[in-house]
User: What shape does this take?
Amino acid sequence: MNLQAGGLGQLGDEQLEWLEDDVKGLSAETPIVVFAHIPLWAVYPKWGWGTDNSERALGYLKRFGSVTVLNGHIHQVLQKVEGNVTFHTAMSTAFPQPEPGKGPNPGPLTVPSEKLRSMLGLTSVQYKQGKSALAVVDSNLS
Assistant: This one.
């Protein structure tokens, strides 16, 4: 990641080459799960909520029937389906941020203390070797 203030995330050539090589020998029926910090889709580029060269990464995954991309960074739950790729963002366990474009900047929101727990989240991902199911649970702490 080569994040610059106010700019989009960047996957370096080394990471992109690793991804290309890692999936090269897999069958197109293999379900793929990608964990990223910054979204691999343009949620709100003005705030740096996206990855500049994500198209290259996603290009390596287009041949797979099921691709799930999980990320944080924007501190809220959003979902998007684009072709064979399902994108999920997770709530924060640290501080809430405004919805995309609904604030002066993506900085932390000040909220009443009684609302804070409902605006934070806890996410767990469970994978069991030999099982073909993946469970992603994102819920608030209230």
